[in-house]
Write a structure and sequence with these properties.
Elements (H helix, E strand, L loop, with lengths): L1 H8 L10 H10 L1 H19 L4 H5 L6 H21 L3 H7 L13 H10 L19 E3 L17 E3 L17 E3 L17 E3 L17 E3 L17 E3 L17 E3 L17 E3 L91 H6 L14
Parallel strand pairs: 1-2, 2-3, 3-4, 4-5, 5-6, 6-7, 7-8
Length: 391
């Protein structure tokens, strides 16, 4: 078997990505036969990583024996994954209890595998890593752009300087991963899990993270510009000094999250749940907070120029020293909110609930839609600047 596989796979890469679905179709049609060869292929793959057969079968196929080994490993990985992904969940768990391929059991195994393939100029690196167990793996300066990492588990993995642009990562599991100086631009990360992950100095621009879980994640200088996080979970996440301009967080859960010095201009947070959230020193200009839940929110010192708070619930919110010029607050509930020193110049306040709202030293010059009944409900001071028709 070893000699045959080296002869078939060793001379060149026989499994380019263009044939991947065709290969899987064959495995589906011959599933019973595919299952029967899975274990031998898996065992052979692990032995090839230690170069067990290279001296005997690999040295005569190409001038560079390591190129032969790389071709064999690449082809074997394609075959093994093609078999595994066509199995149903119960069949996968019969092979591995957790339902994931354990082809790289040691922390550095995948790094060594990648380094071997990366050292060969003609090798393809659009790897198929579906259902691969890469928990605890060290992934330093790897370029996995265009790779298929759907359902890959990378819990507690360490990604330093990794490049994974444009890759398929649906349902990938990065729980408690440590990700630094890495890029995930244009990746499909729908339903991915980043719970408790540490994300520093990394770029997720234009990635799709719908229905993903970033609860309790810690982010520093992260770029999430033009990223789609619709219906995602970021409760108790901590985000500092980051670029989130034009982000989509529609109907997402951000309860108890903390944003410090974050630029979220033009973000869409329609119907987002943000009870007890903190936006400290943030730029929230032109954001959509339509129908958002912002009870007990802390937005001290933030800029919300032209922000849309239509029907938003800001009960008990702290809005001290905020810049809300020309904000749209029709139907918003600001009862018991604190807007001390807030600048509401030109804001639209029709049907806004100002019961017990603290407007001490607030600037309401040129506001629109404000009635005397609303003012009478609020708490104002001699230093509160009211529209001229109230003076």
């Amino acid at each position: 078997m070893a000699e045959d596989l080296y002869l078939i796979l060793g001379s060149e890469v026989l499994m380019p990505v263009a044939y991947r679905e065709f290969l899987r179709d064959i495995m589906r049609m011959r599933k019973d036969r595919a299952i029967s060869i899975f274990r031998p292929l898996e065992s052979f793959f692990k032995l090839c990583q230690t170069h067990t057969y290279l001296g005997k079968h690999g040295i005569h196929i190409k001038d560079n024996p390591l190129a032969t080994e790389a071709n064999v490993l690449y082809g074997l990985l394609e075959l093994i994954v093609a078999i595994f992904v066509v199995l149903d969940s119960d069949q996968r768990k019969e092979i591995y209890a957790d339902g994931f391929l354990n082809l790289f059991p040691n922390v550095l195994d995948f790094f060594r595998f990648y380094s071997l393939l990366n050292s060969i100029p003609d090798i393809f690196l659009d790897l198929d890593l579906n259902y691969i167990n890469l928990n605890d793996a060290l992934m330093h300066s790897m370029n996995l752009s265009g790779c298929n990492l759907v359902y890959t588990t990378l819990q507690n993995s360490k990604l330093f300087g990794a490049t994974i642009n444009g890759s398929e990562l649906q349902s990938a599991d990065f729980q408690s991963a440590f990700i630094v100086n890495s890029t995930f631009r244009l990746c499909d990360l729908r339903q991915a899990n980043f719970k408790h992950a540490i994300l520093y100095f990394s770029d997720f621009s234009k990635a799709t993270l719908e229905d993903s879980d970033l609860s309790f994640a810690s982010m520093r200088e992260v770029r999430l510009k033009d990223t789609n996080l619709t219906n995602s979970v970021l409760n108790s996440a901590d985000i500092i000094d980051s670029d989130l301009t034009n982000i989509r967080l529609i109907e997402s859960n951000l309860e108890n999250a903390a944003f410090h010095n974050v630029n979220m201009a033009f973000g869409n947070l329609k119907k987002a749940r943000m009870t007890n959230i903190t936006f400290a020193d943030c730029i929230l200009n032109d954001c959509y907070f339509i129908d958002a839940k912002l009870e007990d929110a802390n937005l001290i010192n933030s800029k919300m120029i032209h922000a849309n708070f239509y029907n938003a619930n800001l009960t008990n919110a702290e809005l001290i020293n905020t810049d809300m010029k020309n904000a749209f607050l029709r139907g918003a509930n600001l009862s018991n909110a604190n807007l001390t020193n807030a600048d509401l110049t030109g804001a639209y306040l029709k049907d806004c609930n100002l019961a017990n709202t603290n407007l001490t030293n607030a600037n309401l010059a040129n506001v629109r839609g404000l009635t005397e009944a609303q003012i009478n409900q609020a708490l104002i001071s001699d230093s509160t600047i009211l529209p001229t028709h109230f003076e």
